[in-house]
Amino acid sequence: MIKTIGFIFSILFIFNNADAQFVQIVKGNVVDKDSKQTLIGAVITMTDDSTHTTGSVTDVDGNFILQNVSVGKHNFSCTMMGYSTISLQNILVTSGKQVVLNFELETSLHQLKEIKIKADKSVVINDMAIVSARTFDVQETERYAGSRQDPARMASNFAGVSGTDDSRNDIVVRGNSPLGVLWRLEDIDIFNPNHFNIPGSTGGPVSIINNKTLSNSDFFTGAFSAEYGNSTSSVFDLKLKKGNKDKYEGTAQFGVMGAELGLEGPISKKHKSSFVVAYRYATLDWLNALHIPIGTNSIPKYQDATIKLNFPISKKGTFTVFGIGGKSNINLIVSKYTSPPKEEYGENDRDQYFTSNMGVAGISYQHKISNTAYTKLVVSKQYQMVDAHHTRIYRDSSYAITATKDILGYNFATGKNSMAWFVNKKIGTQHTLKIGVNAEQYLIQLKDSIREFTSTWQNRWNYDGSAFLIQPYIQYKFKITDSLILTAGIHSQIFTLNNNSKSIEPRFGIKKLFKHNQSVSFGTGLHSQLQPLYTYFYHYPTSSANEMHNINMGLTKSLHFVLGYDKVFNKNLRFKSEIYYQYLFNVPIETKAGSSFSLLNMGSGFERFFPDTLVNKGTGKNYGIEFTLEKFFSKGFYYMLTGSLYNSKATGNDGIERNTDFNGNYVVNALGGYEKAISKKATFTTGGKITMGGGKRYSDYDLAKSKAFGDGVIIPSSRNIHQSKNYFRADLKLGIRINAKKISHEVAIDLVNVLMNKNILSYNYNIDKNLIEEKHQLGFLPLFYYRVDF
After folding, report:
1. Alpha carbon distances (Å) from 202 to 169, 374, 403
2. Which long-range contacts (CB under 8 A, 24 or more apart) does 486-489 make?
3. Residue 656 — pLDDT band, cuts 50, 70, 90?
4. Which secondary structure element, helix H or strand E, spans residue 4, and what is its range?
5. For residue 371, how many other CB atoms are within 10 A of its CB?
6. What is the distance between the alpha carbons of residues 79 and 82, in angstroms, rounded to a whole number?
7. Among positive and negative, which fits the CA dihedral 550, 555, 560, 566?
8. What is the mean pLDDT of residues 519-529?
């Protein structure tokens, strides 16, 4: 690897020594944020560090173009009479690709007065969001050390959010289980978009989402607006970017995590249609070849693709085709070893074969009804599948194989036909109304059998059926004054599998802006969520497949309250704090007397859950305070400090309130970066991150019952009474970016856990030794990549 990095730096050095001053085109579109009506005559201005200013005006289609913009970082603003002024700070311009900026302006009630709004991360795409929301862009997924170009890992830097496992991107939001995370793509709720995903989880080791295909997207951590449902925790609302309608461009990247290629450009310049497509193929051979531990001796393999086609049909309508998909597999083969291997994510006594696939394809049509209203319809088809097979390896005292036995085989396949429709109407300058419905048909096929402790196969899942999830909603925004905004709405949820899964959920938010760039906001709402689909259809191995003892589970519900304060000190420095309380009820718990189990503890890791009889009588609560101090990039550097103090509790059938698995009590992130131009064309970049947080919760095991059962059995009264040592990790990222003629290069190395701290992952039961083993997180992980934009 060192030789490869040296060779690439040599090539970049040659490019850097060619004398030239490179420029690029910056273009985009301006629309009304509420009605999506294009705005004619909006003024776009650009300034750089030398205070040099240039400008452009939007045409009859709301488009603008700035020619001959020098490479580097620049600030852009958009102004129009009767609208608030929006400013975009520190937009990176390179020689390799044109920059596309899309402005959405909000009406000002003082028609002759310009209200200036800095478009930092508090100005979210969804105009109904009042609290607990942040917009993120592609540059953020690449800038932060340790984020691995992954939206979920990037979000773990935000206040109130923490990662649970270095090897996975599961995220805990305000103490909630990762189960509560909702993924949405192009207005459609989607399955878990991660490779190697396990049924019932929302994360995985590697994201299927290619960050280079994303447009600006929203992330919500609580009290979200009425259009979002089937989530008690948080929402990723992802948007794919449109391809460049004027010019063919590409991105190629090669590194430890794999190789990828992305292309975009016009389908028809005459009709202004465009495409964007990306493909990635990866194995982790490099890390194994360099003897860098990744928790397993086997080589994970995966590939994924993204596509979006954009067809403007007329000035009133746009037709879009989109899709993402991923395949992954890993074979954990222990039978080839002559001594016990060290496996953090597999068992040492069996060969394991695992495959997971996920895909979604959809079409959408957005139509302008009038200058104040538009509607959008999206339909999609989705599929996810997980297949696993285990073979038990029996050995003698010399570790020689004496016998083998197939002990487990399962295939969980779920399809989904989805439809989302809404109409958005702007009423005057003060009112906005949005009415819509999301409807999904689940197509479920679950097969699972085991014979680990018996001579014959015993079935645990054998279900083939369907069910509908229907979610109508209405939401309303009232801009009382330029400094006082109110939102309200109602979301409803109906799951047709049983009669216990219905909900009507009111939502409300209000925000007040004060002098000296301050604001106070409040949001509240009732939210509900299905249980992991496979848990409804489990039956005991000794029972008939028709005796699914949890088929009638209802929805878990959560009532959110959030109070926020925001202070902008200047254009580059902002402070934000929120205090919150969440009350969870209708939580599935065991009917077994004295049980401390709660479904609030499920949702992370690589293990499935085999539920006993459950009833919706459990409760829980999450409460805490969080803060963010952020300096946006200026004068060559940026930093962000985030901190959260929180408590997460759950109550099982024994009536005792206990810590949840995800109650770390605190998490602190300190990250920043510095960029230095080393010539007219080359920039040295560096970034660092330190994360500290409370350790993992764990329980005592009953070794006798564990031995008899064949798996770990905890002592109910000891659930989560222990906490491992505090978590600490430091990451460092170094890179160089060079602009050449019509092409730009970037080479970087992300040093994850650079101080090689040994963090606790879990405490697991070892049946062969009849004891509890301590397992650790990943150690030092260097991730190198070389990228070229052309």
Report:
1. 9, 32, 37
2. 486/510, 486/511, 487/128, 487/130, 487/225, 489/128, 489/225, 489/226, 489/227
3. very high
4. helix 2-16
5. 11
6. 9
7. positive
8. 97
> Which DSSP symbol is given to 214?
B
Range 41-67 burial, b when 16+ CB lie within 10 A, else e: ebbbbbeeeeeeebebebeeebbbebe
Element containing residue 663 per DSSP (H, E): none
**Which residues, at least 6 apart from 11, have a Cβ–Cβ distance to it below 8 Å?**
745
Sign of CA pseudo-dihedral 582, 583, 587, 591: positive
Instruction: Identify the H or E element spanning 143.
Output: helix 138-143
pLDDT value for 146: 84
- pLDDT interval class at 119 (50, 70, 90): very low
Q: Is 155 in a helix, a strand, or coil?
A: helix
Confidence of residue 115 (pLDDT cuts 50, 70, 90): very low
Name the pLDDT band for 85 (thresholds 50, 70, 90).
confident
Query: What is the four-CA torsion angle of 312, 35, 32, 488, rounded to 10 degrees?
Result: -140
Compute and round to an integer the Cα radius of gyration of the chain.
26
Residue carrying the six token digits 């206040």: 159
> What does pTM read for this prediction?
0.91
Q: Which residue has the tokens 């070229």?
A: 788
With beta carbons less than 8 A apart as the criterion, state whether 263 and 276 touch.
yes
Place of tokens 């990635």: 280
**Tokens (6 digits) for 238:** 């992802």
Exposure of 338 by Cβ count < 10 A (0-12 exposed, 13-18 middle, 19+ buried)?
A: exposed
Distance CA 345, CA 329 (A): 14
pLDDT in tens, 610-648: 989 999 999 999 999 999 999 988 888 999 999 999 999
SS3 (DSSP) at 13 = helix
- List the beta bridge partners of residue 30: 103
**534 SS3 class:** helix
SS3 479: strand
Q: How far is CA 732 from CA 441, 686, 752, in A?
A: 45, 8, 7
Residue range 396-429, pLDDT digits in tens: 988 999 999 999 999 999 999 999 999 999 999 8
Sequence letter at residue 60:
V
- Give the model confidence (pLDDT) of 229-259 as tens digits: 999 999 999 999 999 999 999 999 998 888 9
- Which residues of 541-665 form beta strands (DSSP E)? 556-570, 573-590, 614-634, 637-651, 657-659
Calpha distance 638→673 (Å, rounded): 5
Q: How far is CA 558 from CA 463, 623, 646, in A?
A: 30, 12, 17
Burial of 449 (0-12, 13-18, 19+ CB in 10 A): middle
Q: How remote is the C-alpha of 367 from its chain's centroid? A: 29
**DSSP string computed for 686-752:** EEEEEEEEPPPEE--B-HHHHHHHTS--B-GGGTT-EEPPPEEEEEEEEEEEEEETTEEEEEEEEEE
Q: Please, what sign has the CA dihedral across residues 476, 480, 481, 486?
A: negative
How far apart, in whole angstroms, are the C-alpha atoms of residue 403 and residue 422? 60
236: left (phi over 0), alpha (psi -120 to 50) or beta: beta
Q: Which of 97-111, 213-227, 412-426, 734-748 has the lowest mean pLDDT?
A: 97-111
Phi, psi of 21 (to 5 degrees): -115, 115
